[in-house]
Structure prediction request, 94 residues.
Amino acid sequence: MQQTEHFLRYRRSIRNYKSKAVEKEKVTELSSHVIDWMKSLLKSQPDMAKMMHMDMITAAWEMGMDVVSRRAPALVLVNGGSKDPLKIIDGVNL
Prediction:
């Protein structure tokens, strides 16, 4: 938890916050995009994706369970460059 907090507080980033609620549909749509990304990794890098349990996460989604956002009232999005789909070099190990 401490490492995550440090990552979020001291990260080189541009932060844009709005004091406006995000519609539930937009959070669900974002979760759907995450699932699509996981499915593409399951095809292109199956061993690595399964090691990260993406097969179980996508299966849960197909059964109607949102284990991506878990109906969260807020989300923190972290974005990286497009060359590395997992951002291992710049990511956080939890």
Remarks:
- The two ends are 8 Å apart (CA to CA).
- The chain has a mean pLDDT of 78.
